Every structure is written in structure tokens, then in C-alpha cells.
């Protein structure tokens, strides 16, 4: 098992793996159609997409986390704004 202190990197790895795989498949099929060699073409695109996605997720996730936290209301504050309490 991987130690918990590497959790963010493990999350980033799997997020990059799944997102790059799904997106590269959809874009490859959209651009090429279901040709005979679609699997080979997709795997080539996926390897490139993953190589870009992994460092990108590691660089961008702290920024995204800050932006998301900025637009999410605290439960205490949102309850007061809605008239509850």
C-alpha cells in the first residue's frame, strides 16, 4: 500500500489516467470515426494525453482548490443568509 502522505499524488495519477483516457478516446473517435485501427490510434493519443495531464493536474490542482473554496459558502454563513437560525 502507498502511504497516506502521497495521497494527493495518487489522486492526481488516477485522475489524469481516467480523464486522459476518456477524453482522448472521445476525441479520437470524433476525429477519426470507428476505423479499423482505432484502438492503436487511441492508445497513442492516450499516452501523449496522460503525459500532459499528470503534470498539469499537479500544477493546477492547488489553484483549482483555492478557487473552489472561494465560491463555496460556509454552512454557518449560508444558513444565516437564508434566514435560518
Explain what you see.
Keywords: Membrane, Transmembrane, Transmembrane helix. The chain crosses the membrane at residues 9-32, 38-60. It comes from Oleiphilus messinensis. It is built from three helices and no strands. The protein has one domain. The mean pLDDT is 92. It is mainly alpha-helical. The chain has helices spanning 7-32, 38-71, 75-81.
Write a short abstract of this structure.
This protein has 85 residues and is mainly α. The protein has one domain.
Q: What would you call the shape?
A: elongated
Strand content: under 5%
Query: What series of H and E elements makes up the topology?
Result: HHH
Helix/sheet category: mainly alpha
The overall pLDDT, averaged over residues, is: 92
Number of DSSP helical runs: 3
Largest sheet: none
Transmembrane segments: 9-32, 38-60
Pfam families: DUF2798 (PF11391)
Protein name: DUF2798 domain-containing protein
InterPro entries: DUF2798 (IPR021529)
Key descriptive features of the protein:
single chain, 85 residues, mainly alpha, 3 helices, 79% helix
Task: Give the SSE map.
Blueprint: H1 7-32, H2 38-71, H3 75-81
Amino acid at each position: 500500500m502507498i502511504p497516506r502522505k502521497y495521497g494527493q499524488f495518487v489522486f492526481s495519477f488516477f485522475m489524469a489516467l481516467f480523464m486522459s483516457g476518456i477524453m482522448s478516446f472521445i476525441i479520437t473517435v470524433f476525429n477519426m470515426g470507428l476505423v479499423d485501427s482505432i484502438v492503436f490510434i487511441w492508445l497513442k493519443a492516450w499516452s501523449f494525453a496522460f503525459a500532459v495531464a499528470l503534470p498539469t493536474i499537479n500544477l493546477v490542482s492547488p489553484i483549482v482548490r483555492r478557487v473552489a473554496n472561494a465560491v463555496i459558502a460556509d454552512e454557518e454563513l449560508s444558513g444565516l443568509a437564508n434566514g435560518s437560525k
